[in-house]
Amino acid sequence: MKEEFTLVVDFVRYQFKRIYHPELALTYHVHFDAGFQPTVFRMRRNGSGEWKILPMQLPAHVSKSEAAFHDAIERNEETLQDFVARSNDD
What we know:
Layout: E1 4-9, E2 12-19, E3 27-34, E4 37-45, E5 51-53, H1 60-64, H2 66-89
Antiparallel strand pairs: 1-2, 2-3, 3-4, 4-5
């Protein structure tokens, strides 16, 4: 599990930061550079448990990459679960 990780999709670098607070839903803040303007958007699980971009106006390439973002976050969360399970075995 990483609190931060990077994913490159179609030559665009996305920096993910895991934000956890016990009173709020688990969220990933995703930073990327849209030309000259750095941009941040957030992703959370929807009612079906899928990681989705919270509604906001974003370039089309971001929306098209949502499935790749979902997969990357799921891999990171699975790593976290494995880490916790191994820690509990000790």
